[in-house]
């Protein structure tokens, strides 16, 4: 059982896969109020891993994400 | 297993499907205190994708939604 | 699997069904600190739909509810 | 599947059943920062129903409870 | 299904069992910002019960725990 | 059922296993706003145990983690 439904036919999962392929810059707003912006390296049922403009690899817990959007 | 029960016979799922068909403008209040307003493009067990008045596609995590209502 | 246990024999589900039948006015306190007050139209495993005094239909995510009580 | 494990052999469930039998006054601290104090009427996998000193029946979502303790 | 995985072979469950046996003083930091410190009496899939320095038995919801550590 | 998907083939689980092997210093940002920094001792479906610079063993609830990143 995944904490998020990780069925790759789902729009929410496919959307992130496409953002990874496009190497898009994505802005995440977290429940803490933090904004994390960068390129998504990978996703799985628990997390999304982002590399930001300072080349820091940040692993975000999916349940902590309020929303995200592609930038530019 | 879905993080939300994604049975299309459920009122909560049907309601969003109808709002999509109607291209209604919907206001979402998130647990962060953010308001996101726009037209719903799609929903799945994890998320709702909204295009706002600035044509930004915003993917909202369903667990982060406090409430929503159709505007106008 | 429901995000809330939606077994209609449970007191919590029956209680809301009764409040719907009684067309009672119910006050919901959400995790955001918001109060939403109105008549419950329907409930399902994910949400409760309320019509408030301004006739706005507000769909509340059940996980975002802290507590509720019948008014008056 | 219950949002909380509602196995009556569990200490956490039995403890609340005993507090109900004892008609004890219990203080609940919620994730919102609210305190709700009163006598527990019933519990189920989703909620606890409390009657407070103003005879208001308040239904608390179990996931919104931070902690509780018997008073006096 | 437990809200937390209550497999006693897991380090997180065994760790609490050991703290109970040692009658250790443990500090819990909750999502509300509260600190609760005391000796753990029992744990189950839903909760941890602590007796604090004022001999108050406090039942903490496991999902409300941010972190904990043994004191002294 | 794990509160997080604890399949060791998942990137999020493998990543933490690697950080443990590397004895890396990792910074965790929690939903409470707390930062906890240290070396990860172990992880399981519920928690991550970190030893900080004051040699304190801190057990973090995985659902309370907003994000984490390796330092230095």
UniProtKB/TrEMBL annotation, chains A, B, C, D, E, F:
* Protein name as it appears in the record: RNA-binding protein hfq
Top-level taxon of the source organism: Bacteria
* Alphabetized Gene3D superfamilies for the sequence: 2.30.30.100
Pfam name, any one: Hfq_1
- Taking every annotated instance into account, which residue ranges of this chain make up the domain Hfq-related? 10-67
Question: By its UniProt entry, which InterPro entries does this protein fall under?
Answer: Hfq_1, LSM_dom_sf
